[in-house]
Structures are given as structure tokens and as C-alpha cells.
Amino acid sequence: MNPRLPALTLAALALLFALVIVAFSVGRFAISPSDLLTVLWAKISGGSHALPSTYDAVIFQIRGPRILAAILIGAALSGAGAVYQNMFRNPLVSPDILGVSSGAALGAVLAIFLALPILAIQGFAFAGGLLAVAVVYFIGNAVRGHDPILALILTGVVVGTLFGSGIALMKYLADPYNQLPAMTFWLLGSLSSISPADLWVAIPVVLLGLVPIFLLRWRMNLLSLSDDEARALGVNVGRLRLVIVTCATLITAAAVAISGIIGWIGLLIPHAARLLIGPAFARMLPLSLLLGACYLLAVDTLARTMASIEIPPGVLTALIGTPLFLWLLAVTHSRARRS
């Protein structure tokens, strides 16, 4: 085991705990850490407290689900990004490389265009993400030739572009006063409307995808080798790749379905984890999950507190992620030159 991993994991957990306290405390209705602990202890112990009932509503109905959603979605997207970057042997790959985000977006805007309820919008988004990856995987396997990885990437780009044109068509046909603003809001990504019921649906799906990835984390290193080398080591490359793609697609589609499209997390955070702990997937995955949770929670807290109106987290992740990514590239290049 890398001797830095325990220390980095503890530091990430401490940072996440501190961010949770800050996220609960700040906002238009400020809550001090002592009041937060009082309310939480009363909830855990089954007792009561002397604070107004507004505190319970803010903590358990408004900020609590949003904080849990930020942790869940940040971890899911960064974990999926780490999987795809390792599997495709490309550090510039993100979770939407196989078209899952485009498919989810098309499903969501189609449901909005049909004036369906929010639960149907999330269902359409989830199904659209799965459908997009299924189409990509089917076509990629049919035309893969001598390089299945390249075939999947190219097919993902083509299918993603096709789904993007469908999104543009839906926006063009949508009612500009009601449907179009709703589509735009969903495509920018937001955690403001996530309810406890959404989390109860999303958490099992994300865990269903993350658990097999975690159990197979040692074998994932073999996917960074060529297919012939991996087969020589006794790995059924096709089966392993199918399982990993399915799991990564599940967690990405579940995250996008409840939050909309929030970019950069799956691209930026695995880079940071790789820079801190090295390229071994078994070490990088848990750190990526923690850092992704910290990053989205910090961004969402800024999004709802830095201005009088809430800024979509999808906008902030790009504004913050771009300079951070350039800095990580500079640090990686500097290390490579020194070595």
C-alpha cells in the first residue's frame, strides 16, 4: 500500500466533514454549528430541543437532501471519470465519453417537451443515458476492427453528436415561455429541487454500480494494458469491459437524472487524485470518490451563497474547473520533465 494513501484519505474525510458543517451553516437562514449539533442530537436521541421548528425544516428538508445529493453526485461522477480514464487509457476522457450525458439530456428535454411530471423527467433521463451507451456499445462492437477502444470512443462521439442534434430540435420546437426555460435550467444542472424521495431512488442505483467497480478495482489496472497483454494474464477483457461500462453508466445516468448535467467533475477530479496518489486504480478510486464529493459540495455551497440569486453548479464547475485543470496539467508536465 502507498504510505500516503491513509493520510490523504483522512485529510479528504476531514475536509468533507468540514464542508458539510459549513454547508449546513451558511445561507439565507444562518445556523450556527452549536445549533446544528443541538438539532442533530435531538433527532438522533429521539428527544426535543428549544429551537424553533424552522431549524428542523431547513436542516432535514432543505439543506440535508441537497448536501447528501452533492456528496452522492460528486462521488459518482468522479468515480465514473476514473473508471473511463483508466479503461480508455486516456486522461482526457470524462463520464460522457460514451454519450450517457447526451442521452440523459435528450430523454429529459423530451419529457419536458411532453409536459410530463418531474418523476417522468428523471426516468426519461435515466433511460436515455442507458440507451445511448447501449447503442454505442452495440455499434462499437460491430465495427471495432483491430482497436475496440478507439471504436467505442469514435462511436460515442458520433452518437453524442446525434443526440445533441435531437436536444437542439426539442429546444427549437419547445414553447419559449414555459418549456424552453425548463429545458435550459435542467441542462445547466442544479441541486436545488432534489428531494429525499429522489435520493432514495438514486442511492441504490449508484451503489449498485459502485460496489462491483470497487470489488474489481485491482483488475481495472489490467485494462490499462493492451488487450493481448491482459488476456495473457488470464483476464476476459470483453466481459470485464462490459461489466465496468455498465456499472459506470448506471452511476452516471443516476446522477445526471436527478441533477442535470454537471460537467468537469469526472474530468478534473481523477486527474487530481492521480497527481496525489499515482495512477494505480485501486488507490485512485477511493480518493477520487472523496475528492469528488468535496468538490461538488464546495461548489454547490458557493452556488447558493455567493450571490443574491443561485448560480447553476454546472456553470461554476466549469468556471472553477478550467483554471484548476490547466494548473494540474502544468504540475503534471513539470513533474514529467524533472523525472
In short:
77% of the residues lie in helices and 0% in strands. It is an all-alpha fold and 339 residues long.
Describe the structure.
By secondary structure, the protein is mainly α. The chain has one domain: Orthogonal Bundle (ABC transporter involved in vitamin B12 uptake, BtuC). The protein is built from 14 helices and no strands. The protein starts with a helix and ends with a helix.
Helices and strands in order:
Elements: H1 4-25, H2 33-45, H3 53-87, H4 100-113, H5 118-142, H6 148-173, H7 179-188, H8 196-215, H9 217-220, H10 227-232, H11 237-259, H12 265-277, H13 281-305, H14 313-338
Helix pairs in contact: 1-13, 3-8, 3-11, 3-12, 3-13, 4-5, 4-6, 4-7, 4-11, 5-6, 5-11, 8-11, 12-13, 12-14
Rounded mean pLDDT score: 88
Succession of helices and strands: HHHHHHHHHHHHHH
CATH superfamily: ABC transporter involved in vitamin B12 uptake, BtuC
Number of DSSP E strands: 0
Number of domains: 1
By DSSP (H or I, 4+ residues per run), the number of helices equals 14
| Fraction of helical residues | over 70%
Biggest sheet details: none
- N- to C-terminal separation? 22 Å
Structural class: mainly alpha
Provide keyphrases for this structure.
single chain; 339 residues; mainly alpha; ABC transporter involved in vitamin B12 uptake, BtuC; 14 helices; 77% helix
